[in-house]
Amino acid sequence: MKKILTTVGTEWLKIKGLGLVYIAIVLGGLIPLLGFVPSFFRPEIIQEGTLKFSIFEEAIGGEALKYFTFFVLLLFIIIAANRIAQTDHKNNGWQLMETQPVSRFQLYFSKYIILILLSFLCVASYFIFNIILALADYYIHPNAVKLMDFDFAWIMKTYARICITILGIASLQLCASVAFPGFIWSFLVGSLGIASNITSLVQKQSFFFNPYSSLYTFWNAPEIKNLNSFISYSELMSVFWMIIFLIIGYFWYSKKGFKNAFLKNKKQIIISTVLFIVGAGFLYMFQKPKSYKSDIAGISMTGKLETDLKIDSIKIYTTDFHKKIGAAAIKNNTFSWSTKENLPLDEYLIEIGTKKLILVMGSGDWFDLDFKLNNTKLVSYIRSNRKADQAYRQTEDAFGREFGYALEDQTYTNDPAKFYELAQSDWKESQRILNIFADPENNALSDDYKMYRRQLMAIRYLNEINNYRKMTSWNDLKFAPPKEFIAELNENIQKPTQLLSKNENYLQFKLDHLLTDQDQSINADSILFVKLNQLPKSFEKDQLLSKHLSKTMELESDSTARNKLFASEINKINSKDYKNMLYSKLEQINISQKGSVFPDLAFLNDKGKTVNLSKFRGKYVIIDLWATWCAPCKEIRPVFETRNNQYRYYSNIQFISVSLDQDQNKWKNYLKAKPSNIPQFWLNNAEQFMRTYKIQSIPRFLIIDPDGKIFNLNTPFPDEDNFVEILDKLKKY
What we know:
It holds the Pfam family ABC2_membrane_4. By secondary structure, this protein is α+β, with helices and mostly antiparallel strands. The strands form 4 sheets. It has a 7-stranded mixed β-sheet, covered by helices on one side. It has a 4-stranded mixed β-sheet with strand order 6-3-9-10, with no helix packed on it. It has a 4-stranded antiparallel β-sheet with strand order 5-4-7-8.
């Protein structure tokens, strides 16, 4: 150990005058300086509803950290490795190794230690610059959402993870710099590493044989809060490559050439071959994705909340009929829930106050969840044994970019050969991505979820083929799809999983499948009801009939015809869940359609006096639904004010603004700061109103007619031309 330290000191003296310390500090501070310094001299705009955040974590993490590790840090390693090695090349150090009082291994390893220490300094510089500049920004642009929370554990874990991630790359760059004299070759090796990672980003695939892929893996998951373990796959692979290239580099260095090191005689060739096979075996084992493992009986869920909202519990529901599965009380901003019930693999809805999160889960799964939320936003960090399934659900789509554009733009409506060629190519590529998919911790998709996604993928292609034929021709054989392609897609859905069996795309496919090509070209909806009613009683029949009845009710504009259709079909459905859903659907359509009576809502004005909506009878009432926590609402309010001024002389038009804030005082305080000429009201129990009319988001604009009936429940925004066109038709002098 003493000799190693002495050798490191000696090697350090050799490169002391190369300026590598200064380069490390400058490159480490480059992205923080470019990110912060210009912002010091311009006003900072933070959107309303932004979650509170630690200024240090915000500065260090995110996109900046990804670009720093992916490009800047790699560039420094390339430069430093080359400068360290070129010192020996210039001074003929290779030929003088025998004169040194230390072993060749100590000489080579000391060079690697110096390279690593310099790289660690570059990382430390990035962290320190961000911390200092974030503090400066905190005082230059003070804001209530900025928190001076210094999470030492998070900072140290993130720092350690970056440092471990680059060990293998540093080892490779030193090996290349020692092996090839001159800057250009080692720089070329590093450039190929960057290019290979960019290729991985484009193709969404990590190449396991690529030593630089640890940076690609880090790019996909820079936040340790989203990892089951902060030392994960990318770090383990980095350590593996570090060992491999330290061995290769040392023998190359000590034997003064590749041939002398590995191919000098038969014995060396045999040893090199054996070591290569052993190394390849270890690489295969390391890179193989970890299979999904069911760790427990039932489901376990724990977590933490970071919020100023009053939330007493989280609730778990099914996504199809909103049946409650369980609930967990929140105590000291933590919660814990478990069940021994054998729940099938499905997508379940987690409700945290008014915010929702969908999780793929089933019996045998555990979850550790962190939530940050306010009135407008929810950020979640998920750790789970089913992490890969969550990642795939959130990031992967069924169609590739080119095929997706072709569908959107209807590019090949007159070229079926090209359409089907592109569809087949895209299907193969989508399967490839699904088959090789692993999350950044190298967890593979569970077999049951992978089967579901493959089936769903096949259904989506089949549905798009049906849509293509509807747009073109059912009868012209020129537009018929290749038989082998259709057979392959159909083969994948012979045994639908439970998840697929209730998927909307699958149900639509089954409905289309009931119709012949001739049926498709005539009154398909009526024929479908006849064919569905001929099916034997089954849960699948209830699903299909419910799907078709729901869709037909939505398309029917006449309430009498809609109610008659509903009455004729509802009793042919046996499932209580589907019946209840359809009754609710019919009520929702009937109360929301144009001409339906709108409730006489009771508002409070800013004086605390009750005002009923019926006060404005005889006028078209233009209602702005908004809240003080809604940034888009506040952005559109000035335009709403302008439209009010524009139509203020028309006696039959009345603009009003209705706040949906839970806290009435926040609404009143906002009006004190920003008064308005438009009558301002607050609606108590706004959540019930929004649920009744399925209002999912605000701002929302409604028009109620002079008789208190719905004229338009989803009016265009006041900055749109359609808004003016509607009001111009209503105005009366």
